[in-house]
Amino acid sequence: MPVFCQKVWKHWDMSGKTVEETNEELIKRVEANDAGATCQLGYYYYQGDEGLQQDQEKAMDLWKHAAKLGSSEAHFSLGSVYCEGGELKKAKFHYEAAAMAGHEGARYRVGIMEGKSGNGERRTSFEALHNCRISRQSSSHAYISKRF
Question: What does 8-47 look like in DSSP terms, one character per residue?
Fold first, then answer.
């Protein structure tokens, strides 16, 4: 299972609230075009988490909306889903958008995709290694550090 917008919605303290109250607040933030809340709600629907029925199509729609609002996490999540489904052009588009916004995990994934492109170009190999190294240097993600 790829890493998605896991618990990125940290703007409000929801401790002491019920799942229903938390979801109501989250939906209000989504309606106000909060990119982080929209991404988080997408995660809940994708996983069937926080009392919501699993609906991966709705999750994708929410992530697409969050991506339009500028969420690098949403772009990363879309890239992950497309990559798992074998839609590599769409995956790379979303990973690149997330990487350009500073998402280290996405930069790593772009580097891996460039490294696996197999076209034999030296420039592509350099870019792949460069992206992987930058993501490792600036990332707090343990899964990246373990790979190098």
Answer: ---SS--TT--HHHHHHHHHHHHHTT-HHHHHHHHHHHHH
